[in-house]
Fold each of these.
Amino acid sequence: MSDLLDHATTPSSPPATTPDPWWRQAVVYQVYPRSFADSNGDGTGDLPGITARVPHLVSLGVDAVWLSPFYPSALADGGYDVDDHRDVDPAIGTLEQFDEMVATLHAAGIKVVVDIVPNHSSNRHRWFRDALAAGPGSPERERYVFARGRGEHGELPPSDWTAVFGGPAWEPVGDGEWYLHTFAPEQPDWNWDHPEVHEDFLTTLRFWADRGVDGFRVDVAHALVKDMSSPLPTAAELAADDLPDGAHRFWDRDEVHEVYRAWRAVFDEYDPPRTAVAEAWVATHRRARYASPEGLGQAFNFDLLRSDFDAASFRRVVEENLRLAAESGTSSTWVLSNHDVVRHVSRYGLPDGMDEAARARWLLSGGTDPAPDLERGARRARAATAFLLALPGSAYLYQGEELGLPEVADLDAAVLQDPTWLRSGHVDKGRDGCRVPLPWTAEGPSHGFGPGPSHLPQPSWFAAHAADVQDRDPRSTLSAYREALAWRRRLRTGEELVFEDAPEGVVRFRRPGGWTCVTNFTTRAVPLPPGRVVLSSGAPADELGGELPGETTVWLLPAD
């Protein structure tokens, strides 16, 4: 036993005298509302569509739903350009329908998490329209990041910074001033040095918490606070590798945690306290502050999402992130797909070692160069998912992954909606391929998504992945997810994990109660460890014959 304890990774847990908060080991299902289910045939998913599909979520076995933005928006960035943070887009529904959806989910035992977008508003937001009308030097402009342009008449941008979606990060307004948009021009950045911005977001948090929302996913949580003091650095200076922690002008500044301390005070006004998870793309050692009990409570780690299907890489990611979770007194988060990345069935079917730039070139080819091995991608995806669901912490699933959906890589340029496509000069196709509406049925004008066409076209091969087809197949990906989530709920206990010895290319760890997860990352079969197989990502247990096939995960209980 002493040798096994040397490999133990034990995150801190709440005091034994208090029940664990629901989110520590929750399975959270991400809904991208515009592409989930359309109730009225206008091509856009909506809140009644979500409410109608709650039975699917119940049968899947998730603990919570996270809703991507459903706020009023011109869709310059898929809804992340928010006109009003305290309302529902009329194309998606009404506040009354939001309340009905929350009540239905809660009645089914499912918590509700909503996206909050605090780095920027849309350029249609009331305060931004006021800022443009008021002119330079006005109090209205102080709520956003405005700066005088360079040149005699302010005709040049204040700096040469580039926006995340491509192109300049500054937009002129015609009076010598420019506003900062870290992302698209339709997304002006808030000035978080302004007290009215702070207070308005506290009001927004209470608005949704009072409507029964259980938690918040915080978009680009590491941006918010910015240092706009003169002189502004050049883009090259901003990108320097030797910048000290917290010294970047708008990424991951230490002052941002003052914002989240105030948010935590609001969360703790409620019983039970509301929770939050940070989307913070920061250095690994900086993530813990976002996830601290004094801050948001959890932070996404995207390390598995960015890893090849490789034993050493997966184990290293788990060890490091459980150590970080222990340091911050929280639980880790695990994710393989979301609304911003190529679906992991396709990623795992592509050659190992492809980085984001290579995948962008792959999308530009329509998904043909190189041609993915989707059979292998699906096999690896199911194995990786079973591995992830065996880990302590929260698991985040993205809509459609339970159907084994690959990326729709061959969308025609004429239908693309992601601003990345235009802003990059047509060199980055963007994220639409993972946002294509779901296939609920093999038949119908939009495979059951709605009574009419969908806002992004679905390929004909979606029929084979439809939920009604998979529902009847005990070996389908949908059935595998249901089985894995049921066993996860049945076996869920403390947050400890102990790595055990395993052959090269295999990762094996034990959880409290003595059950074990074993993943074979190689292509060759290895001997199956002793125990009773209760879950297999590949062939059923009675067909394994004492061997663990390649690219397969099993869960084992101690032998009777």
Amino acid sequence: MKVLKKWICAGAILMAVGTGGMTAQAADMGTINPADYKKALETAPLGIVMNQDDSVVTTEKTNNDNKSRAEVVNGNNPDTPEAQVVSMTRRLSEYASVWSKRGSEFNLNEPQTASMWLYFGNQRGKSGEGMAFSLHNDSRGINAMPELDEYGSVPGEGLGIWASDVDRYQSKLTELAKTAMQNAWAVEFDTHANVEKGKYAAQKVNSFDVLVSKHIEHIASNYAAKPETYERYKDSGWFGSGHTPANNMNYYYGMLHQGLIDDGIRGQTKFLSNGEWRHVTFKWQPANHENDSYGQMTYIFDDKDPKTGEKLTGQQQTVDVNVNLIDPDRTGKARWGFTGTTSSGQASNQFVVFEKTPDLIDGKTTTTLKNLTRKKEVKAGDEVFANDKLELSYQFNYQDGQQANWANIQSYLKLLTDIDYDKAEVTYGNGQVQNISLDDRQGQSINVFLAEKLNKDVATASIRFTGRAAAVKDRREVASTTSKYTSNVMIGELTTPDFVINPSQELTLTVTSDQHLSLPVNESTTITGQVYLDNAASLAHDEPLWVHVTINGKVQKEPVKVAEDGTFKVTLQANQLQKGNNVIEVVATSGELRSNAEEVTISCSGCLELTAPSDVSFESKQLTGQRQELKRGDGWELSVQDTRGAGSKWRLSVKAATFTFINEAGDHLLGKPVYATREGKLPIEKKMTPIVTHETTKKQEKNHNVYGVTDDWDHQTGMFLSIDSGATAGNYQGELTWSLDDAPS
């Protein structure tokens, strides 16, 4: 009966191949559970783009003998349109794999984070067999898989990664390990308990879970091709072939499970295959030093709510991973991806949605709302006024990465309400402009695909929408919106600020001077502006107008009176400000009327400046054939002005180019400048040599912050020219280069 059953399974495999041409969305007759397949796609979360150029993973194989049935299909979730899903298994006796492409490998030498959504079907106790995430350097690349059984199939219990326990006479662990994917480490998501043991267990390919028999569905990890991963058992029963343990020994194998995760309930069958999408995050920490061969992988399961996307605590394990076992040639890289299987008796609809690939690029996104009328950014909770000109922008910035291109960026935008949009476009860092038709909107939603790839040459893209705030009659709150985007390497969210639209403003204040200033410590600056009182208010209002000033959150005691023409001036001294950035807020009042508030940012960092002569000389002197030092000639005046305030420090350094004759011979002077102090002499050569370090004092603050470097030089100190005994007479010229540094060591 056992042999007959296996031949029936082989027939089912041939049927599956014959029906494989139908679309995945249509759930053909070979699908184990069409209703579950349909539900999975209708609830699929958003994932990376996998079916276009610059995709980083592939289901395609270069070897025609590869048995993988994985394919990329589109999800049908209206909340995540065009979600890209990898359909792994959906029939009996299937194998599937999806691997990273060449150039998109996992970097074992750097911290990495990757995340995915996984779906294991809803078969519960009838589920099989599961999936595995793997890192490998198998020489077969994307065609790597375990040894096939006698029927040409990938054994189900091995999940497409572990060894193939198909030979009952196999007694050596080393030989068994050779049947697994080589140079591989994996985390299994096992949905079927392979716990057959004792008599008749050999050659059943159903015993890898005997060491964790109470955990029917579980997560665990180990090395696929390491002999110590497996444990050998002897079969004590009779076999249909007539062989007995007395004349022919039979063997089967269990597998050691590291970093085990389950729900803690004995015999539980819905830990994984519960009909819901499940989130997993992998965090890699490389070895601490070059000679250490162990990194650490943390895998966190159920760390996001599948319905809301909110973060959850989840369950996690951290395991040590010997890099030498997955990267024996020390390339620093590994192929990464997923495998999955079903068996002849159990099958499930299994899917993978890649949310974030390992850190292949360093890409940043920001969302900003600007009030072009008021010339300021609108932050959460800020106010704008009816008919103000607004600009909503979504920025993408490629900063660096192993992957050359951040590509296939598709955004699904939910625009802010209560803005009458009149223009939309994408601007790129190379000056290219991509027009967007506002007619493509559906309500407040619009999808924008970035036509340009982002990389080191074209690093930025900004999707901009401009329009005017609605002409509201009453104060209106505009809610924040959250949009989504996907790309070839990651997905993300774009969140706008909430804000308030005021219908009108009787009193309006506008800053007319620069709103971003830099101010030396001992100087002052003036903020200028204009205050407007609308016609209706001015007819019934005769109270004076005042401008109130707040510096870094502290309200100043004396307001500034507004002139009759509506202008005002606020003069600020540097001693009113702190070092670094200062936020100055100005707001106008008149009786009970209050204007909008405007901000000016003043950076009070001072400056550090060197004054050095462009042409100096050393004295002329007759050579004696002995070593000599030439004194300074005229023009040696160096000074440093430090307006950053008392306590700031600086360092002055100098280097010298080679001195040569001013003639066609181009001879070099045998000698060099030297800098003399009371403690000794420093030769000045081709590398920068620090000669003075100083901390600015309060006394210098009163003297315009100037320190005269050459004021301290005398006939024994300062710069001299040292001449060697073999120097030749002539006119020489050279170059001194000075460097002023604000961070002395």
Amino acid sequence: MFEFLVTTSKGLDELLAQEISALCPQLSVKTKPGQVLFSGEIEQAYKICLWSRLANRVLLKVAEGHVDSAEDVYQITSSVNWTSHFSVDSTFVVDFIGASHCINNSQFGALKIKDAVVDQFNVLFESRPSVSKIAPDIRLQGRMWSDKLTVYLDLSGQSLHQRHYRTKTGLAPVKEHIACAMLVRSGWANNKTVPLLDPMCGAGTIAIEAALMAANIAPALKRQNWGFNRWLQHDATLWQSLLTDAESQIIESDTVICASDIDHGVVSIAKENADAAGVFSAIQFNTIDACKVTPVKGQSAGYIVSNPPYGERLSEITALLPVFQAWGANLKEHFKGWNLSLLTSNRDLLRSMKMFAHKEYKLMNGKLECQLVNFALDEKNCITREVSLSNNDFANRLAKNLKRLNKWLKTENTNCYRIYDADLPEYNVAIDRYGDWLVVQEYSAPKDVPAAKAKRRLHEVIVALPQCVDVPSEQIVMKVRTQQKGKSQYEKVSQKQKTLEVFENGAKFKLNLTDYLDTGLFLDHRLTRQLVQQRVKDKDVLNLFAYTGSVSVHAAIGKAKSVTTVDMSNTYIDWAKENFALNNLKGPYEFIQADCLTWLERHNNKYDFIFIDPPSFSNSKRMDTTWDVQRDHVALLSNAVTCLRPGGEIMFSNNLRQFKLDEEGLGKLGLSIENITQKTLPEDFKRNPKIHGCWVLTLNV
């Protein structure tokens, strides 16, 4: 009689216990999270290895003991007669799980077990087995729980979920044992003669596992490499008899199993995997949008089981919410009487389908916490519920904003402007329009607002926007607005490279709506740029912290004598050059990549007009020191004054809301001060008067 531990993903232990009891009715099992334990014979362990669709590993206990010190791990392991389990010419590896007060590092725990094993072989044979992490003959596992260590021999070798038919996978594939759990929890596994459909099949795992179930094919029947192949107590005759018996139990199945996906390449991968699993002919594959799938005429109602995209990123959620809405509408229209089971880590996505869940199960898909949600497509769930915006506070406020802005826009010469800026605290986003695109920036939710509630409000915004603003969901870009520090101010947040040309008061600008937190144009400085353009004719202009050079473009359009553009980022300097080319601006225009602070300290040229719009704070590695606009603005402006001709102007701006200009310090520099903040606030930013501050500082003659 041996003691065994069978592992699985958390949330599946009860299902695994039921499966083991069905395979081996004579066993008495008990469960722990992600584990099933029992005492039995090696035949039962072999049977679970061969037939379990839900297990990860089958472990044979070889030692157990109390641990007060690291030396106890060594002694417990040494108590095993390892020569009865494998030979000196075998390779092995040790895995270690858990920790205690004396073993707080899994590598250290594994090392103590390994040392005990090899020392025993050295004493007996003056030779030792080799450690191999790649395809070892024997895999051992130490599991520490509180102060108790249990040492196991892994009979499965590789995890049992690896059926070895998946030659390729799509994005975020579901593991094979999770797919089986979905089929069991959905109810289909107990009713395998009715149709099964996966309309977002990806690599085809769910359909393939269903086909193996329907044909009663043992999931590990074709597996060649096992943890017990080189185990000295392996009963090869018994194992072969179990294989022969499993082959005799395969049946012909006429169950209709359909798998489809919108991506032709992914469907091709699913077909290859099904062929490798030997069930290609049992599955009907198709390339079609899930929102357009309908049952085959004359087909009886069955089960839809799928692992749709979760939308882990905001940009993905923007695209997925309308997809789930359309999918829900299609299911209600065409699949009445069917059962629906969906795996998700984003429950709110499923809520957009406007259906009532029948049952929900928590489980882990890899390291991702997920829910399997079951729906019955009955009369109640097949009622189409129109999404009305008439009672939606956000939609109502947005409509008022648009009505007000439409009058103002008739007098403006731009196609990029703000339409909403956290007007309602519970909808904490800013929304900017750029031509036919929207950029939605989610501000970090206040600490007293639950994350789930903030997420739901954001989803309401995403759902309402296409209808309110008449912009398709695929042209809505989502971002999270957090404080940017140091190098992160310049780092990409995406790689989509969605560029767009916009216009503003006679200028054109190239924007990137996706790859950076900012798009390339600060909309709150629209009037500021106009003022610059009006003040710089025949003047030498310096633009510091220039970003993508939008102020420089307006200065050049305003017929400045010369324009010098300085920024720390090569990316932004190149971007500024592109903006000049876009406006066909050629002349005495200089572009300099440098740390603006150190560059200005060493610079000797003179200018008539200097524009300075620095960040609030920076600790970038590209700078020689940290920068704090409140602390350092006088020193910065002091250096700027040395480059300013008598009577020249500095237009100084920043967006630190608590900023206070040191008027006394600037007065000592010979500067007169005019606060022009109100003159620089565009109509679309007036409800947020602290969006920036702006001053004109004139060097007294």
Amino acid sequence: MDPAPPAAAPPARERIAKVVLDSPLPRLDHLFDYRIPAALADDAVPGVRVKVPLRVAGRVADGWIVAVADTSEAPGELSPIDRVVSPAPVLAPEVWRLARAVADRNAGVASDVLRIAVPKRQARVEQRWLAGERPAAAPVEAEPDPIAEALVGGRRIAALPTAHVVEVAGAWVGGWAADVALVAAAVAAAGRSTIVAVPDRRDLDQLEAALAAGPAAGLVLRIDASRAPAARYRAHLTALEPGPHVVIGNRSAVHAPAAELGAIVVWEEADPFHQEPLAPYAATRDVALLRQEQSGAGLLLLSSSRSSAVQRLVELGWMEEWGAPRGRPDVVLTPDDGRGARIPSAAYQAVQRALVAGPVLVQVARPGDAALRALRAGEAPVPIDAGRTAHELGRAFAGVPVIVADGEHVRDTVPPGPGLVVATRGAEPRAPGGYRAVLLLDGARMLLRESLWVAEDCLRWWSAAAALAAQDAPVHLVGVTGDVATALATWRSADFAARQLADRRALRFPPAVRLAAATGPVRAVDELVEAWAAVGADVLSRTAEERGERVVVRFPTGAGRRVADVAKEALVRHGSARRPKPPAPPPPVLRVRFDPHEPF
């Protein structure tokens, strides 16, 4: 008698993928459950890109698998994943956790954060990465560094950098860049990764040069928008590998994956370039604070001068101050001499003496092309700003080259010989060995700018320019008196920030409180304001707009999550409302932005 055939094995139970959709719609900002077909079981793992069906007109959406589970609590039958786009797990777990926290803090959508955090796929780069062998990184040997040791221990530090330029392997960089390179190398020697976020390309170039001259040179991964898409994606994939790594970039770098993260460093956290222009508009400093809490890594906020936002964290005991910076510029407060000239006689004399030894930096409000045209063609000077400044300097110091540096005339460095460099704040080039003198003009005009942060901004601009001076060179702040001038002259920005913070507490202005702005239809804004009032927010300003209104509210920092949750509910409710059919114009959209840098 033939034996009975073996019983067929029961089909394997399909697992469940928890998927976040790549959609900006607030009502879709949660995880969706999908079945993982047996054919996709090996590739459908957390972090991979997938295509999944929607229940709307048979559409297919992009998404990422965040987690895989055995069961689902979703009602009804689950749809299967359509396909796995790639088996590369490009969304690291720590990046997903950060994206969710950033979105929740700002009433945003997590997929908006993921578009910032995960570069667009480059198939060829990805295929080579999947096929390649990844040898372990060679150990890094570096000099011990006390800040690095503290960061690896999870401490949070606010510090000022070395206040002069430094030579590394033949290149002159800001002292801050050399400081960060030392810290990153020491963190790498401990087997941990570092993420460094800086405001712009010029800062990145300096930092990259400083790192290239040290023991962590082979660990640097540059992630910023100026890079070719393939290079940026390759750096992202490499950051997913076991470390240590040194990830550097602009504001998006703070979202980068980094196994064994030991330190997060933000340079010039108050710089406006750290304000993210895309929803949910989270600033680098705030993202770094969230990531530090989640990861336990150390946090270093390094800046030319202390901001009131960082001072608040210090006074709360959440951050610690770290010693005095190495080097301190010799700042001289130079009053106007009553002659009506933009450059007082004392400053002229300082320039005359300094030009014997090398270049002189003159910081102004707006250089412009008129300066160069007047100097080259002997034209009459234009009445204001750099045209007049450069013309006066050109006449007073005949035969001395004049260089203009601004947004249109970008200069990273200048020659070492005698020369006058007229630059806008933030556009100042570096000089080998430092400038032999620095003149800070137009300070009184800069302080008249309408901004909540004008005094702090000016102190940061002046401090950054002063740090470009040679160690024994004078820095003249012309025509400015008062508290902010004293803070620069004494190099005690923390004391100035403390006084600013005290004033802001009395006025109930940021950073003592938080702000949120809402724009949209009058009815939707009114409903949101009423809901916000119930959780502790009060109206600071209200203005009519062409098709609605705009309101700014303030609220205690401790009420932030409640205020954000209320805003998210309003966005979901308004986004789900019926829209009129064409040709009727669409109604205005309700939009919410937390912590606007310039709310008015």
